[in-house]
Amino acid sequence: MTRRDVGIGDIYVSTGNDEIKTYALGSCVALVVWDKKLLAGGMIHIALPEGQINPDKAKDKPGYFADTGLPVLFSELKKVGANRNSCWVKLVGGASILDENNTFDIGRRNALAVKKFLWKIGLALTAEDIGGNASRTVSLVVPTGEIIISNANQRWTL
């Protein structure tokens, strides 16, 4: 199995024998999509909800923002043959790191931006592991659809 690392603002889609993994989701969120019939999956690591704050970055790295990256993720999934009727969608991250008073509330705003996009395209989350105050690492084992989440203290599946 080949590990495919997804950095901040990256999008990766696979139909192969891959583990797609992203690290240290603090206020960032990862949306993970898996097609159970095609055995294909994808992941995006979103840093901020809206690209309008930096249009140049949104153009160069659309995955950095929810509103510009999510359409790209779903377009790439469609290109490999993923079908919305056989997909599940899971959301991970969105913690409040170094923002104890929720002054900026980026984690919650990221999660809401993803949910809003999914609502617009008629999809609902199958599961979520969001919020709190600890960062998470998440991986998708593409051939099986297993999601593994870990942090400094524990490891679990979603």
**How many distinct helices?**
3
CATH topology: 60s Ribosomal Protein L30, Chain: A
- Note the gap between the termini: 20 Å
**Spatial arrangement of strands, main beta sheet:** 1-3-8-9-10
Low-confidence stretches: none
Provide the number of structural domains.
1
What's the shape? globular
Helix/strand/pairing category: alpha+beta
The major β-sheet equals: 5 strands, mixed
The mean pLDDT is 94
CATH class: Alpha Beta
- Rg is 14 Å
Helix content: 10-25%
What is the correct CATH architecture?
A: 2-Layer Sandwich
SSE order, one letter for each helix or strand? EEEEEHHEHEEEE
Total number of strands: 10
Strand content: 25-35%
What's the arrangement of secondary structure elements?
Layout: E1 2-5, E2 11-14, E3 18-25, E4 29-35, E5 40-46, H1 55-60, H2 66-79, E6 87-93, H3 106-120, E7 127-130, E8 136-141, E9 146-150, E10 155-157
Parallel strand pairs: 1-3, 6-7
Antiparallel strand pairs: 2-5, 3-8, 4-5, 4-6, 8-9, 9-10
